[in-house]
Write a structure and sequence with these properties.
By secondary structure, the protein is an alpha+beta fold. It has helices at about 50-60, 90-125; strands spanning about 30, 40-45, 65-70, 80-85. Helices cover about 35% and strands about 20% of the residues. The chain has a 4-stranded antiparallel sheet, covered by helices on one side. The longest helix has about 35 residues, at about 90-125. The mean pLDDT is about 90.
């Protein structure tokens, strides 16, 4: 069977692989011009997985009024995460950083539990 190639689609590996560290920004922040406590983070080469994860983590913070994400187009691989805080005590950048720190702690916790479960399984099997 002949292989069908989309002419306007970028190479698949370019959607997740960083070719040159200096050529692209990994994270961009644009403050909202109408609301002082709001802004949008653009994460190139990220998709729904990270966008939704960060959105959910920010919504756990009581100082965050709104958090959402969108994918601009199926052929554009970047996630736009928008956040609005309740007041100026917590900036959108601080809320984003806090969400990332909390997610890192959760991943470390899950990793620790996974390692303990593997050790327990190996011990029970005599491995």
């Amino acid at each position: 069977f002949p292989r069908i190639v989309m002419s306007n689609a970028p190479e698949r590996y370019l959607s997740w692989r960083w070719e040159d560290e200096s050529d692209e920004d990994r994270l961009q922040y644009t403050p909202d011009s109408k609301k002082p406590n709001a802004g949008t983070f653009v994460m190139p080469k990220e998709d729904h997985t990270l966008g939704n994860l960060i959105r959910l983590q920010m919504l756990r913070d009581p100082s965050v009024r709104f958090a959402g994400y969108r994918m601009p187009h199926p052929l554009i691989v970047e996630a736009h995460v928008r956040v609005e805080t309740i007041d100026a005590k917590l900036t959108p950048i601080q809320a984003f950083e806090s969400a990332l720190e909390d997610l890192q702690l959760e991943v470390e916790n899950i990793e620790g539990k996974f390692d303990m479960a593997i050790a327990e399984f190996e011990h029970s099997r005599g491995i």
